[in-house]
Specification:
single chain, 570 residues, alpha/beta, TIM Barrel, 8-stranded parallel β-barrel, 3-stranded mixed sheet, 38% helix, globular, binds beta-D-glucopyranose
Amino acid sequence: MFSSTARALVLALLALEASAAQKGTPTVSFNSTAGSTYLPNKDYSNEQLAMLWYQVGPVSTHPVVTATVEPTAEPSSYAGPGEFHPLVASNYGEQLAEAKLPADFAWGLSSSAYQLEGAARDEGRGPSIWDLLSHRNPNQVADNSTGDVLAQHYYLYKQDFARLKSFGAPYYSPSISWPRIFPFGKGPVNEAGLKHYDDVIAELVKNGIQPALSLFHWDTPLALFNQYGGWTNPQIIDDYLNYAKFIITRYDKYVPIWFSINEPQYCNWQYSYYPAGKLYPDYGVGPGMEARFLCGHHTLLAHAKLSKWYHNEFKGRGRITFKNSGNYFQPMTNSTADLAAAQRSYDFVLGWFGGVWSDGDYPQSLKDTLGDLLPKFTEKEKEIVKGSCDFFAIDAYTAFYVGELSGGVEACAGNKTHPSFPECVNQTAIGPDGFGIGPAADLGASWLKNTPVGVRKFLSHITKVLFPAVKDIQVTEFGFAEPFESDYTNVQDATWDLRRSDYIQGFLDNILLAITEDKVNVTGAYVWSIFDNFEWGSGIKTRFGLQYLNYDTLERTPKASWFQTRNWFK
Ligand code: BGC
């Protein structure tokens, strides 16, 4: 019945369909890690694991969701802002009318394992330092919440990814939990944990979402604290490498972007109240300054060694870097002292790990101020640190004004007991005229103000002034804690998050301006976070999600900011 041309056409169409169907359900297979030198897959000890959990104390479980849940079809649309109130308008309508993102711009939402997975003690996971801190350290978490259950994302990831697919972002940036893979930090592998992440990666691939994957987001295995004090000890480097190489070997095929470490600057706050001697054995590293800079040193070396292995030995197919934590510092005035204070502020945050982009070493200001508190790199180590990031990743949430410390920098820099040591600058969210720098976030994130213009200035400053060797930069996290969101008693009020929507609109507009007007090569941006989660010391009351999480029913509901973000990218 068909003419031969029509037949050929039908066959071609069928072939196309078949290949599309194939594309729709890709087959996923992982590189074998069996037999590798870092897989002594023997003597997995349940008793030892129970002892570790005993140190943490009783862990809560969810009454219903205790196994992986198959997803149901996502609705074709979600309840969203209606005719009575629009989303937030752009302040740069005309300027950005023709502006376009680069075609391969990486964007999506971000998260981290401990902050949303829950299922803390399930399927052979070992405890991390955060299980211990949230359970046992008095006053550690403001609302006494823990990561025990949270969103139970560990079991609900399939539905979460189905929703991400409908959101339409090409990337998702979560982290893997080290103690789910190596419950003791090293040694035996937990097969159930590994199988779980196999499924997570496969499910992302199935949904057409590319992982930008963090290997470490602060959840150091508790066993390694017990053994030698976590990141204060150089032994952590090999244990981290063992774990990180294991994961990369297995998943590299599907992961175009690797983040070795989430924000090495976390050493500042997590190690400044380093509770050795109270919660786990004391290894003789004093709390505060000493622990902080040892942690930073070992973190940077661990990253650098991984990165060099990734490219030189493993020949990975993707890119690798670490995510920096940093904020824009606006000098209070143009005085030499205020400009120097701004530079000093950058030195202690980004410069601390900035040897990657220069000589592999620490800035002179850190050496001068910290003296023996700052560990030293050997010449060989500097070579390893140098050039170990494929691009600059910045988690840029806010901005500060900065000025000269009253009494001058010298008096502080020479006195280790000075309250402003070692930065010795005056950082503030109050402008020179006395007005606040931007609208405040929730009280649980008092450091955070909405300062969209800051991100544009920051992107230029990082790439043109601080580290000119940087070729491209991604804003790997930005986000906002809507004030008082947890106080609402119904989900409809909580999901009208106008301040977060305004923050996102402003930040995205300014990131685009950095690209189009300032010619900064920004290649990605990720909003924190997929839904509300455990905000570390501030607990679950401080919410950063684009979806509202009901901690009782586990229901996730898109907020106005979800639509704001999606529309912006559309
Ligand atoms: C961290 C996240 C955190 C977010 C908001 C980022 O610096 O990577 O873990 O939740 O800030 O405070």
